[in-house]
Structure to design on (394 residues):
């Protein structure tokens, strides 16, 4: 299972806002990136600069000559007040996902039935014509009913209607209600048995729980991780980050990453036949004209790059402090397992991965992931607590 882009999540969100004016021309191009891990995304996209990532790191992924205990006062991990209820999908989110799935299932089922009927049609023209003629009225009525709504016995409606309580409902609202009414044990077994497998009950409640869990994984999980990092960086104190030579290396890394990103979006933009005239420095210059003063776009770019590099280093040392606070210690076997899970392929051995990416940075990647997974598990562990407590009080 892919792991969300963790440490860089908020950085990439900020970059996305800066690129909004460019991306607006590409609204039809939906680009979904689900990276393997916060540090892994860097490794996979910018592999040409990877040797730099392991510079000034030791075997265990620590910055050489830098003391975490002397420089980092970690936030109180027990005060990390994040619960499942904050991130769980809303009822509306769940309903929309169920309606979408049922729509697709019904359409696919109807297409299969039509294909089967077509394949079974007789080649006898007279019989076919007679059958069509004698049943034309019945067939036409059935087609109209099928096209109107997903449920049996429903009728076609247009515009807005008023129910017995005087509430006005649009066609979209009525359609949604009709599809939700289709979420029965029978239809779940018919349409979603394979999807649910043996993990979930083949019932309406079972499919709803499957939908909740899937939305959590796909859409809400990353928000938990982002909030964890934000809490740690906001509430921890860092006296000093690693020295200037390290900052210099990471500034170069960030600059290369941003240049790769610029080239990617430039290529994507031009592939739609649109002009792309902004230079690298202009592309990332989100200042208003009144704020630019005498500082050039290049000077501004260099400042932004170094600021990002410092922020990233700050997050790394804070997460390393959390790693120590949680009582973890370096484990070569766990790092190897991490590498095998995310990097080793049929054409690439673990030794080749180490040579390509740098074992030191892979160790740091593992540390970051272990911390975030552990803290995220605390949030997941609160799932259902509110409902249980309320039931107990009653």
């Amino acid at each position: 299972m892919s792991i969300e882009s963790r440490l860089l999540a908020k950085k990439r969100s900020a970059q996305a806002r800066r690129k909004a004016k460019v991306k607006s021309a590409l609204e039809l191009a939906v680009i979904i990136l689900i990276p393997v891990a916060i540090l892994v995304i860097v490794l996979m996209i910018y592999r040409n600069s990877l040797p730099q990532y392991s510079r000034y790191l030791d075997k265990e992924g620590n910055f050489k000559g830098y003391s975490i205990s002397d420089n980092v006062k970690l936030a109180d991990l027990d005060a990390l007040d994040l619960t499942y209820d904050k991130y769980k999908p809303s009822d509306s989110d769940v309903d929309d996902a169920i309606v979408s799935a049922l729509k697709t299932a019904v359409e696919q089922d109807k297409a299969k039935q039509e294909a089967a009927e077509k394949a079974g049609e007789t080649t006898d023209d007279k019989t076919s014509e007679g059958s069509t003629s004698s049943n034309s009225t019945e067939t036409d009525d059935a087609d109209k009913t099928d096209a109107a709504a997903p449920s049996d016995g429903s009728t076609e409606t247009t515009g807005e209607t008023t129910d017995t309580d005087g509430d006005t409902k649009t066609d979209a609202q009525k359609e949604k209600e009709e599809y939700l009414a289709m979420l029965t044990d029978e239809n779940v077994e018919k349409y979603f048995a394979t999807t649910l497998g043996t993990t979930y009950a083949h019932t309406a409640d079972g499919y709803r729980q499957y939908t909740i869990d899937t939305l959590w994984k796909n859409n809400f999980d990353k928000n938990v991780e982002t909030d964890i990092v934000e809490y740690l960086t906001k509430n921890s104190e860092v006296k000093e980050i690693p020295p200037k030579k390290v900052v210099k290396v990471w500034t170069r890394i960030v600059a290369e990453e941003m240049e790769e990103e610029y080239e990617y979006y430039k290529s994507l933009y031009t592939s739609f036949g649109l002009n792309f005239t902004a230079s690298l420095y202009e592309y990332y210059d989100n200042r208003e004209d009144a704020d630019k003063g005498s500082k050039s776009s290049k000077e501004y770019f260099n400042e932004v790059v170094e600021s990002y590099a410092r922020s990233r280093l700050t997050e790394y040392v804070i997460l390393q402090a959390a790693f120590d606070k949680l009582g973890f210690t370096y484990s070569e076997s766990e790092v190897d397992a991490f590498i095998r899970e995310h990097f080793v392929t049929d054409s690439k051995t673990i030794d080749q991965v180490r040579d390509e990416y740098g074992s030191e940075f892979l160790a740091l990647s593992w540390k970051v992931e272990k911390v975030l997974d552990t803290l995220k598990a605390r949030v997941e562990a609160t799932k259902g607590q509110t409902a249980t407590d309320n039931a107990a009080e009653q």
About this structure: Strands lie at 72-73, 160-162, 168-170, 237-238. The chain has two domains: 9-74+236-393, 91-119+137-214.
